[in-house]
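We both want to read discrete structure tokens more fluently, so let's practise on a single case. Once you have written the record down, we can walk along the chain together.
***
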Amino acid sequence: MKTNPKRPSPIDLHVGAGIRSLREARRFTQAELAQKLGITTQQVQKYESGANRVSASRLYDIAQVFDVKVSYLFRALIEPGDDA
């Protein structure tokens, strides 16, 4: 399956939506999350929109901030019965 390099991948969009959902559920602003992660608010916006991919280490940091497993951000993408 070819993807358009100018468009975010469906997985990046899914992970970004998960970050946004967690942030909003915890009532964090983008600026508050950025401060906790030591990044800019613009970077949080790019992660949430899927414009920038989130590295494994940053996924771990985000999961730590929200006290969830990294796999939580992939929850709808994981097949039933998979170890997560």
